[in-house]
TrEMBL record:
<dbReference type="GO" id="GO:0004345">
    <property type="term" value="F:glucose-6-phosphate dehydrogenase activity"/>
</dbReference>
<dbReference type="InterPro" id="IPR001282">
    <property type="entry name" value="G6P_DH"/>
</dbReference>
<dbReference type="InterPro" id="IPR036291">
    <property type="entry name" value="NAD(P)-bd_dom_sf"/>
</dbReference>
<keyword id="KW-0560">Oxidoreductase</keyword>
<dbReference type="GO" id="GO:0005829">
    <property type="term" value="C:cytosol"/>
</dbReference>
<keyword id="KW-0119">Carbohydrate metabolism</keyword>
<comment type="function">
    <text>Catalyzes the oxidation of glucose 6-phosphate to 6-phosphogluconolactone.</text>
</comment>
<dbReference type="InterPro" id="IPR019796">
    <property type="entry name" value="G6P_DH_AS"/>
</dbReference>
<dbReference type="GO" id="GO:0050661">
    <property type="term" value="F:NADP binding"/>
</dbReference>
<feature type="binding site">
    <location>
        <position position="190"/>
    </location>
    <ligand>
        <name>substrate</name>
    </ligand>
</feature>
<feature type="binding site">
    <location>
        <position position="156"/>
    </location>
    <ligand>
        <name>NADP(+)</name>
    </ligand>
</feature>
<feature type="binding site">
    <location>
        <position position="186"/>
    </location>
    <ligand>
        <name>substrate</name>
    </ligand>
</feature>
<dbReference type="InterPro" id="IPR022674">
    <property type="entry name" value="G6P_DH_NAD-bd"/>
</dbReference>
<keyword id="KW-0313">Glucose metabolism</keyword>
<feature type="domain" description="Glucose-6-phosphate dehydrogenase NAD-binding">
    <location>
        <begin position="9"/>
        <end position="195"/>
    </location>
</feature>
<dbReference type="GO" id="GO:0009051">
    <property type="term" value="P:pentose-phosphate shunt, oxidative branch"/>
</dbReference>
<dbReference type="InterPro" id="IPR022675">
    <property type="entry name" value="G6P_DH_C"/>
</dbReference>
Length: 499
């Protein structure tokens, strides 16, 4: 389906996100012929560029980062016709008076292109601008849908804590309706994350088992093998809890645990996400150290190469207590999940890059083949690999051929790569296209963002107030602090260590 004609305005157009992710994703949409007939991109930034300079820079980004570049036959021609749709205007976004001129530029481009005053405003800017830009646009009447649609895409971080997220929501809702606001969590744009819903709700072999009667525990891991790189300055004020757990991991946990929506539409799905987020049992401030482990990577040698510790990274305080790893255990207090622990962890500088969800099923009630370690160690698992080797792995016991009844664990493994020759669309490609179509299903709703912050709040408060809660060091290139294993009170259980 093609979206209505429109102009996409990108604030922060001279930044990294625009050049690495946004423009390449839109180019991919162009190659797949899924952009509207009349369409333009207006880049806005403080740096002054001519349209030609902007086009050249974006062209370079496309060559390096767009996935369809390789597949496209007459690449040079396509690139040339695509970049003609790009325009640039400089604006001091802090200066309310300058928006008058910006509005004229935008309306002139709209007339020229014939886009019917349909505008999407993408805020690829520092978070400090998330209130300023929308407010100034509204002052110019650019929030009004009397003529054409007006949509606002807001990048993460959406707030810094519960209070700032509520403030930001309230601020935006003064001038925009909730259905005009698209809060991006790029995890929801991932094909395999969306597939969680299909796996759960379209398979009679999984759906009936997805509850406390059959599931012993759920494990979610998002590991990165890289450190903070050049983002030390940002990361110092964020840490793994805000950067990954409050948004991406809690969202994954909600999709794994939510009730089936009555129908597949934006509000039905998002209602279920909010309900489950609101059902997570709050962790009491004085129990944070029992349920949450934080860590920080230390210098180490990986495959003979020396690597820096977090405290030596550029932009990082040498005495920093910012966590680069966090692991926690929580419960969801509802009928489906009562008593089932959820273990989630994320970290930088771990041995590999992998994001996966593991559903651990309970053992059979009677152990006919007792004594077999594979079975007693609870090896019935469904591993949902979100990335990088997208797919599903089912682990179960089979009889070892020959005499006796020896059981061995075997794997049934499906790789997304086997499903089609096509590359999976990038998260940004999917999400941008959905916003163009006016479909907000894969965007976070304000109440869900607030519910996630509310759950995180006692952890933030405890870490801030109580210096006795340790930040455990772990050598870069290892699976985080060993003490994270203690979250599993059962000595037979531990984290899965994917290779
Ligand atoms: C971002 C975080 O939201 O997600 C980064 O700010 C992190 O720190 C990234 O590296 C991980 O995304 P992905 O898609 O590579 O798992």
């Amino acid at each position: 389906r093609k979206p209505e004609n429109h102009i996409l305005v990108i604030f922060g157009a001279s930044g990294d996100l625009t050049h690495r992710k946004l423009i390449p994703a839109i180019f991919d949409l162009y190659i797949k012929d899924t952009l509207p007939e009349k369409f333009a991109i207006l880049g806005v930034g403080r740096t002054s560029f001519t349209d030609e300079e902007f086009r050249k820079r974006m062209g370079e980004g496309i060559e390096t980062f767009a996935s369809m570049v390789k597949a496209s036959s007459n690449k040079a021609e396509k690139l040339k016709s695509f970049v003609k749709k790009l325009y640039y205007t400089s604006l001091n976004t802090k200066n309310a008076e300058d928006y008058n001129g910006f509005k004229s530029t935008l309306l002139n481009l709209d007339k020229e292109t014939g886009t019917g005053e349909n505008f999407i405003f993408y805020l690829a800017t520092p978070p400090s601008m998330y209130t300023v830009i929308p407010e100034n646009l509204a002052k110019q009447g650019l929030n009004s849908e009397n003529t054409g649609f007006k949509r606002l895409i807001v990048e993460k971080p959406f707030g810094y804590d519960l209070e700032s997220a509520q403030k930001l929501n309230n601020h935006l809702l003064k001038d925009y309706k909730e259905d005009q606001i698209y809060r991006i969590d790029h995890y929801l744009g991932k094909e395999t994350v969306q597939n969680l819903l299909v796996t759960r709700f379209s398979n009679g072999i999984f759906e009936p088992l997805w509850n406390r009667n059959y599931v012993s525990h759920v494990e979610i891991t998002s590991a990165e093998s890289i450190g903070v790189g050049s983002r030390g300055g940002y990361y110092e004020g964020s840490g793994a809890l805000r950067d990954m757990l409050q948004n991406h991991l809690l969202l994954l946990a909600s999709l794994v645990s939510m009730e089936p929506p009555a129908i597949i539409d934006s509000n039905s799905i998002r209602n279920e996400i909010v309900k489950v987020l609101q059902s997570i049992r709050p962790i009491k401030e004085d129990e944070v150290d029992k349920h949450v482990i934080r860590g920080q990577y230390m210098p180490s040698t990986i495959k003979g190469v020396k690597v820096k510790g977090y405290r030596e990274e550029t932009g990082v305080n040498p005495e920093s207590r910012t966590e680069t790893y966090v692991a926690m255990k929580f419960f969801i207090d509802n009928m489906r999940w009562a008593g089932v622990p959820f273990f989630i962890r994320t970290g930088k500088m771990l041995p590999t890059r992998v994001t996966e969800v593991v559903i651990h099923f309970k053992q059979t009630p009677h152990h006919l083949f007792a004594g077999n370690t594979a079975i007693t160690n609870n090896q019935n698992q469904l591993v949902i690999r979100i990335q990088p080797d997208e797919g599903l792995l089912l682990k179960f016991g089979m009889k070892v051929p020959g005499s006796g009844f020896n059981v061995q664990n075997v794997n049934m493994d499906f790789h997304y790569a086997d499903l089609s020759e096509k590359e999976l669309p990038s998260a940004y490609e999917r999400l941008l296209h959905d916003c163009m179509l006016g479909d907000s299903t894969l965007y976070s709703r304000g109440d869900a963002v607030e519910a996630a912050w509310k759950f995180i709040k006692p952890i933030q408060d405890a870490w801030e107030k109580d210096r006795n809660i340790s930040v455990h060091g772990y050598p870069a290139g290892t699976w985080g602090p060993d003490i994270a294993d203690n979250l599993f009170e059962d000595p037979h259980l531990s984290w899965r260590y994917p290779c």
